Amino acid sequence: GENVEQHPSTLSVQEGDSAVIKCTYSDSASNYFPWYKQELGKRPQLIIDIRSNVGEKKDQRIAVTLNKTAKHFSLHITETQPEDSAVYFCAASGYSTLTFGKGTMLLVSP
Amino acid sequence: NAGVTQTPKFQVLKTGQSMTLQCAQDMNHNSMYWYRQDPGMGLRLIYYSASEGTTDKGEVPNGYNVSRLNKREFSLRLESAAPSQTSVYFCASSDQGAQGYTFGSGTRLTVV
């Protein structure tokens, strides 16, 4: 089955800095790669996703890049704000189910 | 339009007790999922139902059973709870396979 590795497990940045979280996956058949944000005590919420026919996608301060050859994808957050502090999960899927990474706790200090 | 509703939100069980976690969605989604979340382990799939009438095992199915009661409802049952099943359980649904999951608010289960 699919295996998703996520790094780093924790990331501390100053407000205004950029943050990058990286994931690798094992199943070359996977073609959908979402990112979820989970605030403390709340449910995971989809923030951005990318499909295998696209190399990069942006949504305001958030971008995701995908390298299918190397089987890795990354989340980039620019101009970080304290409200970006949360746990971020990457995931990969072929069709039926999502396999999640173990999460990255992002701490943005004012 | 409530989305995905899970009950209960919190539960404490004694080892060996049984219970059923309920999940219902009102978005007419075909697929439903149960995940467990443990510190440092991410979200791990327990069981899923790709469509009404079908269920399949995920990564960590041992100790659990599921029922897709109808298109709206997907329940998770612990027949004999163990401390290792202490976790936060999330139900999710989607309309297009794995794309566009909507999660419920979670059930925090403690087994003592």
Report on this model:
The complex is a heterodimer of chains A (110) and B (112). Chain A has no helices and 11 strands. In chain A, β6 (56-59) and β7 form a beta hairpin. With 110 residues, chain A is mainly beta. In chain A, the strands form 2 sheets. In chain A, strands 2, 4, 5, 9, 10 and 11 form a 6-stranded mixed beta sheet that branches. In chain A, strands 1-3-8-7-6 form a 5-stranded antiparallel beta sheet, with no helix packed on it. Chain B has 112 residues and is mostly beta strands. In chain B, 0% of the residues lie in helices and 52% in strands. Chain B contains no helices and 11 strands. Chain B has strands at residues 4-7, 10-13, 19-25, 31-38, 42-49, 56-57, 64-68, 74-78, 87-94, 102-103, 107-111. In chain B, the strands form 2 sheets. In chain B, strands 2, 4, 5, 6, 9, 10 and 11 form a 7-stranded mixed beta sheet that branches. Chain B has a 4-stranded antiparallel beta sheet with strand order 1-3-8-7, with no helix packed on it. The radius of gyration of chain B is 13 Å and the shape is globular. The N and C termini of chain B lie far apart (36 Å). Chain A binds chain B through residues 1, 6, 9, 32, 34, 42-46, 49, 89, 93-103, and chain B through 31, 33, 35, 40-45, 48, 50, 56, 58-59, 90, 97-101, 103-106.
How are the secondary structure elements laid out?
The complex is a heterodimer of chains A (110) and B (112).
Chain A: E1 4-7, E2 10-14, E3 19-25, E4 32-38, E5 45-51, E6 56-59, E7 62-67, E8 72-77, E9 86-92, E10 99-100, E11 104-109
Parallel strand pairs in A: 2-11
Antiparallel strand pairs in A: 1-3, 3-8, 4-5, 4-9, 6-7, 7-8, 9-10, 9-11
Chain B: E1 4-7, E2 10-13, E3 19-25, E4 31-38, E5 42-49, E6 56-57, E7 64-68, E8 74-78, E9 87-94, E10 102-103, E11 107-111
Parallel strand pairs in B: 2-11
Antiparallel strand pairs in B: 1-3, 3-8, 4-5, 4-9, 5-6, 7-8, 9-10, 9-11
